[in-house]
Amino acid sequence: MDFKKELDKKVSEAEQIIRSYLPKEEGLQTTIMEAMNYSVLAGGKRLRPILMLETYRLFGGKDKVIEPFMAAIEMIHTYSLVHDDLPAMDNDLYRRGKKTTHAVYGEAMGILAGDALLNYAFETALTALNMSPSPQVAEALQILAKKAGIYGMIGGQVVDIESERAGSGEKTDDKENLDTILFIHEHKTAAMIESAMGIGAVLAGASELEKEKIEQIASDIGLAFQIRDDILDVTSTTEELGKPVGSDERNQKATYVSLKGLDEAREDVEKISERALGILASLDVSNPFLTQLITALINRKK
Amino acid sequence: MDFKKELDKKVSEAEQIIRSYLPKEEGLQTTIMEAMNYSVLAGGKRLRPILMLETYRLFGGKDKVIEPFMAAIEMIHTYSLVHDDLPAMDNDLYRRGKKTTHAVYGEAMGILAGDALLNYAFETALTALNMSPSPQVAEALQILAKKAGIYGMIGGQVVDIESERAGSGEKTDDKENLDTILFIHEHKTAAMIESAMGIGAVLAGASELEKEKIEQIASDIGLAFQIRDDILDVTSTTEELGKPVGSDERNQKATYVSLKGLDEAREDVEKISERALGILASLDVSNPFLTQLITALINRKK
After folding, report:
1. Cα A116 from Cα A49, distance rounded (Å)
2. Are B120 and A162 in contact (CB < 8 Å)?
3. A104 by DSSP, 3-state: which?
């Protein structure tokens, strides 16, 4: 089967698992369930659940215990988008061609739907303790929480907002700017990839060394993905990318490319990608689909 | 020791435990830690952690495993206030005489501080699995998550917002109005009391029957507390209460009192309170301070 077809199959598979964990729309509070389900089902590549499941399979995982975690990480990812879109944040009325949650349900319900998804993610993941009250599940729960919080995704989001508001004019020190950009990429993006792949590895019983390697691979994927994003914002056309390009320059936003230049940014993406794929190849186990997926993510043209 | 002095001591004790679990203010994302700590330390009676600890002690609990849960439930309570105060919700600039979180840190950071507290509550509670990876801790984690979410606090908040916005004019059916009010009180307020006392009971190893009794007591406390709130809004003066009275009538808000009348509301509070204290007295164990605290909560004059 070619990669594109296999990927479509994996997306459907993840989609079905996620759906099965969404709340029933019932009771006096039914609006909140509707808003949650609208948000989760508004689309998305289901990248984090797929990376989680394929890393789990890489290490021989075969049980259903992975499923509540797949649903939970997608709920966390979705809540972060719902809150990002709020008027006080990015103020977006559309995402992937669909109205954002607050645009449909109002701002108060947008806030509450995000809260509800974050809370429900933990409700969902905690059901794994009923399936298997093992130290692995405990560790996976702790990874899920930590990588989403102030030492992970939220931490990155905070620094991103603060550095946008400070404007590019304030920090003239390129070294400091670059440290900030790396911090944002590592926390806002890479942390949730580390969560996805880390949970997959832990639940499948990977060794300490294997878990460390997976964490490095995930971190590299996240960073390469974001540097590629900065590159595409400069080199691509709006048509190719399917979203407006050049926005970073217009917003006078310091990026990896504006600080290191296009050539060096490209070289760095290559180096980081090669390192990730090299570590993946050094493992005693393999999952050809996972290798293809990671390669596609790093080399994406949009 | 008289009750007031003992209560002050218990508040300090809870305060100290909560503080010890707050995040250190450090790193590039330090603003978010500051906003979280500001929110938690802005005051409050620490009612939920105290009810949790005293219920734990009621059933003979003596370990530190209760502590992360005490901190976690206060973080969840705090996040709900931070988000309630946002412009899109109640739009409050002051709470307990202090500026609200978004008034100090801005709206975006107010949203993120709430998110961060909710997430950190689970990070904190999950550390209990390292202290004791027992089925009791798993059950306590599940109670914490469920009672805070769409089947608990958030569910009540959603219905409260929707019924406020619908106005009192729409629903002319008193029976339906009363069901809605009971739903809101049971979910928005009682659920978190049930969480606090339920977790205390579970972690101390209470039996199934004891856990059921505690759930009923907690539910009664929450309901009695809220009906008392409706009564005080009518009968008290602004001076006595320390906050504006008569706001429900001004807002044309249907309340327990407006639907059942003052006399019947008073009788119901008496009945519910007596039931709660009766069940508490029927247990084989006792904690005089807990009995006094519950009595004080139900009979409060402000």
Report:
1. 19
2. no
3. helix
Q: How many helices (H) and strands (E) does chain A have?
A: 17, 2
Please state, in angstroms and rounded to a whole number, the distance separating the CA atoms of residues B116 and A140.
Answer: 19
For tokens 């370990």, name the residue: B63
Distance from the Cα of A80 to chain B's closest Cα (Å) equals 9
pLDDT at residue A249 tops 80: no
Supply the pLDDT for residue A171.
55
Please name the residue ranges forming H helices in chain B: 3-20, 30-40, 47-58, 66-84, 101-105, 107-126, 128-131, 135-148, 153-166, 174-184, 191-203, 208-235, 238-241, 247-250, 256-260, 262-282, 288-298
How high is the pLDDT of residue B177?
92
Beta-strand ranges (E) seen in A241-289 are none
Q: Spell out the domains of chain A, with CATH numbers in brackets.
A: 3-298 (1.10.600.10)
Report how far residue B264's alpha carbon sits from residue B271's, in angstroms, rounded to the nearest whole number: 10
| Stretch among B71-75, B170-174, B221-225 having the lowest mean pLDDT | B170-174
**How far apart are alpha carbons A81 and A40 in whole angstroms?**
10
Among chain B residues, the shortest Cα distance to A31 is held by: B158
pLDDT digit string (tens) for B255-273?
Answer: 999 999 999 999 999 999 9
**C-beta atoms surrounding B10 within 10 Å:** 17
Are A87 and A80 spatial neighbours (Cβ–Cβ below 8 Å)? Answer: no
Please tell me the distance from the alpha carbon of residue A280 to that of residue A216, in angstroms, as a whole number. Answer: 10
Residue A137 identity (one-letter amino acid): V
Residues of A in contact with B157 (CB under 8 A): 112
- Best probe of the B interface among A73, A158, A163, by most B CBs < 10 A, is A158
DSSP label of B167: -
The β-bridge partners of A94 are A99
Q: Calculate how close chain A gets to B63, using CA atoms only, in Å.
A: 20
Q: Map tokens 């009906």 to a residue.
A: B227
ipTM of the complex: 0.96
Are residues B155 and B163 in contact, defined by beta-carbon separation less than 8 angstroms?
A: no
Residue with tokens 């005293």: B54
φ, ψ for residue A232, nearest 5 deg: -65, -30
Q: Does A33 reach chain B within 8 Å, measured CB to CB?
A: yes
| Cβ pair B206, B55 in contact under 8 A | no
Residue B83 to residue A112, Cβ atoms within 8 A: yes
Query: Distance from A76 to chain B by nearest Cα, in Å?
Result: 10
**CA atoms of A108 and B90, how far apart (whole Å):** 9
CA distance B298 to B295: 5
CB contact under 8 A, B119 and A159: no
Q: What is the dihedral of CA A183, A188, A192, A198, to 10 degrees?
A: 10
